[in-house]
Amino acid sequence: MANAIFSCVSAVAFLVFHRAIASFIGLEQPLVLLVVGTSLLIFAGGLFRNATREKPNPREALIAVSLDFAWVLGSVFVLLLNVLSREGNWAVGMIADVVLVFAILQWVGLRRMWTANTRLAQSQ
């Protein structure tokens, strides 16, 4: 649920303050933040839906983990291009760190769920 909340808060910030954030991070096109914010809002909605189910869908959880890892890889790419200000690079790096933690924790949760399901199936 923390990933969903973080994604939702980030999305709203990008959508509402896209011009100020773009200026702060050295991004020439604030429109990029509108696209990212909208995408994050959709992502957060999927996370909320899966997290509030009685039994989360493992396939959707795996998709979320994959998208989080893709975000981290995309962030590394942005940092390597060095197209943002120093502050922007720090912001991208810190957000990528948080997203990486979410991805790892979700992956551990998925592995535990798969292990429990395997044990249950073997005991029957």
The SS-based structural class is mainly alpha
Q: Tell me the total number of β-strands.
A: 0
Report the span from N to C terminus.
32 Å
Helix content: over 70%
Q: Spell out the helices and strands N to C.
A: HHHHH
Mean pLDDT: 92
- Rg calculated over all Cα atoms: 17 Å
- What spatial form do the alpha-carbon principal axes imply? elongated
The tally of domains stands at: 1
Largest sheet: none
- Detail the poorly predicted runs: none
Compute the number of helices: 5
How much strand content do the residues show? under 5%
Topology record:
Elements: H1 2-16, H2 18-25, H3 31-51, H4 58-81, H5 86-123
Describe the 3D structure.
This protein is mainly alpha-helical. It is built from five helices and no strands. The longest helix is centred in the last third of the chain and has 38 residues, at 86-123. It is elongated. The relative contact order is 0.13. The model has no long low-confidence stretch (mean pLDDT 92).
Highlighted features:
124 residues, mainly alpha, elongated
Short description:
The protein has helices at residues 2-16, 18-25, 31-51, 58-81, 86-123. It is mainly alpha-helical and 124 residues long. Helix 4 packs antiparallel against helix 5 (86-123).
